[in-house]
Amino acid sequence: MPKITKATATGATKHRPHKTDRKSATRRQAKRAPAATASPANAKAGSVTVPIRQSKKAAILGLLERPDGAAISDLTAATGWQVHSVRAALTGLRKVGKELIRAKDEAGVTRYRLTAAG
Questions:
Q1: For site-directed labelling of 88, which of 40, 75, 81, 107 has its Cα 20 to 30 A away?
Q2: Mean pLDDT, rounded, for 73-100
């Protein structure tokens, strides 16, 4: 049985500040500050804009739009995802309405590419 002290028995406990009261909140605010300069309103004023990094979905679409398409190994290398995650992303593209063509090349590797209409 735990030992009960007078302070805990009366309900008086020491108040600890929340994590947002610590340094991490100021660090997050410092990281957000440069993003404010990258807004479209500031871009029109001629200030320096920060390039937005390409999403993984955009990287997959870029590889699939190539004339020879992309193999699963190309897509996993570009995204850092596992094979089943890349296949799920391809299924998601199909469900959105993109038309994918699947064909095997001379080496027997399955290559995926988007149709011109997709």
A1: 107
A2: 95
More confident residue, 29 or 92: 92
Distance CA 79, CA 85 (A): 10
Joined together, the tokens standing for residue 86 give: 């890349």
Q: Which residue bears the tokens 């920060």?
A: 50
DSSP conformational letter for 38: T
Whether 62 and 104 share a structural domain: yes
Tokens of 79: 């995204």
- 48/81 same-domain check: no
Query: Which residues, listed in sequence order, are joined to residue 113 by a DSSP beta bridge?
Result: 101
Write out the E strands in the chain. 70-71, 100-104, 110-114
74-96 burial, b if ≥16 CB within 10 A, otherwise e? bbbebbebeeeebeebbeebeee
Tell me which residue range forms the domain holding 32. Answer: 19-52
Using pLDDT thresholds of 50, 70 and 90, give the confidence band for residue 116: confident
